[in-house]
Amino acid sequence: MRTADPSATPATLTLVRADALKRAAQHGVRCRVIVDSQVMALLRAACPSFEARWKAYVVDPLYDEESLYIHLGEFASHLVELMVQDKVSEFEAAFDAIERLQTDGDLHVRRATTVGLLEGIQNVSGGKTDPERFVRYLRPQTARKWQLLNDAWNGDIEAARQRDT
Q1: What does pTM read for this prediction?
Q2: For residue 110, what is the DSSP state?
Q3: In angstroms, rounded to a whole number, what is the distance separating the alpha carbons of residues 160 and 146?
Q4: What does the pLDDT look like over 27-47, one tens digit per residue?
Q5: 56: which residues sit within 8 A by CB, 6+ positions away?
Q6: 160: part of which helix (H) or strand (E)?
Q7: Residues 122, 77 contacting (CB under 8 angstroms)
Q8: Which among 116, 89, 96 is positioned nearest to 43, based on CA atoms?
Q9: How do the domains of the chain map onto residue ranges?
């Protein structure tokens, strides 16, 4: 039985994961890693109420398909609006999808999910609702990232480093 290496850091785990994916591909094993072009479709499927807002968003002349952080900010705003209206019926599925971005996303997707989406929820919530109302919907990885964001905003330099892994 394998046990976790207690000295492993998020950075070394990322390298191990990348190496494992490379070895798997060499042996013909297909591993599903979520890339940025798949993120919004995954979130839209998990949160159908976002679809109308997304359709209006993508026809805006300033829309840029490559701007994942901005797209995630739009989704964060939608989730905050739902929370303010106490329309949280889609939150279980939405936060399952967000957790999947953290666990199965490539490094860019994981960073964007942390900074663009989770931190977006925290920032957009200001003055509208207590961002801590979202904590009950967080899954293990998103809860860890949420806390790292809070710690980083409170001056914890190590937390700021870890939130980007």
Answers
A1: 0.80
A2: H
A3: 11
A4: 665 567 999 999 999 999 999
A5: none
A6: helix 157-162
A7: no
A8: 96
A9: 31-162
CA atoms within 13 A on the CB side of 22: 6
Three-class DSSP category at 7: coil
| Lookup: tokens for 24 | 């798997």
Only one residue has tokens 């490539």, namely 106
**Beta carbons within 8 Å of 29's beta carbon, 6+ residues apart:** none
How far is it, in rounded angstroms, from Cα 124 to Cα 79?
A: 10
Site of tokens 């480093």: 161
Q: What is the pLDDT of residue 162?
A: 79
Residues of the chain with pLDDT under 50: 1-16
Cα-based torsion angle of the residue sequence 132, 138, 143, 146 in order, rounded to the nearest 10 degrees: -50
- What's the rounded Cα separation, in Å, for the pair 91 and 132? 14
Burial of 116 (0-12, 13-18, 19+ CB in 10 A): buried
Return d(Cα 155, Cα 146) in angstroms, integer: 15
